[in-house]
């Protein structure tokens, strides 16, 4: 009995050894496959890193060129603006900046308020006078400017020298044809109202010590013939006669 069991045990031992070897062989192949995959993964990561670094290098290399182009563009704009400024300065300016030109005169509407006497002084300080109106066209122009701004505005007219006798600051009397510009019921001299203002769509008399806006007037500067032609609008083309 013992002799017959020994060969069987040997056979079982050999079988187990072969099975173990088989398992060992398969495990060794698995480890090799895993190592191969890891090796390929590292290579892919290295390639990706190289690609990203190359792209970053290209972008960085473009920055100095972009800055140089932008600087060149700004220099060109500055040069053009400088040339334009010089050309504008060579043009004739009949009126100072912030003054309005109309029929050979310049007008300035203040942004602050003073009484009537101080308004005269303010205009004299800039070589002008508190506005004296000489024509219906000028009156309409100034009335429109005042009504658009919705302001009560001093003009150079008063009856301070003699009650009821209205006189401009240049010494000229108020013409009878200009009396139509008084608002209805004005001038009424309520409480010593001796100075005239633009009010609404006409004139009103008010107390001279009240602070109001004012309008200065002075003659416009003369321009050369070429500049006058440049500044003046082109003449209208007459319609051809009917056939």
UniProtKB/TrEMBL annotation:
One cellular-component annotation, GO: host cell
Alphabetical list of InterPro entries matching this protein: C-type_lectin-like (IPR001304), C-type_lectin-like/link_sf (IPR016186), C-type_lectin/snaclec_domain (IPR050111), C-type_lectin_CS (IPR018378), CD209-like_CTLD (IPR033989), CTDL_fold (IPR016187)
Stretches assigned to the C-type lectin domain: 102-217
Keywords for the protein's UniProt record, in alphabetical order: Adaptive immunity, Calcium, Disulfide bond, Endocytosis, Immunity, Innate immunity, Lectin, Mannose-binding, Membrane, Receptor, Signal-anchor, Transmembrane, Transmembrane helix
Record bears the keyword Methyltransferase: no
GO molecular function, one term: virus receptor activity
Transmembrane intervals: 34-58
Domain of life: Eukaryota
Identification of the protein by name: CD209 isoform 1
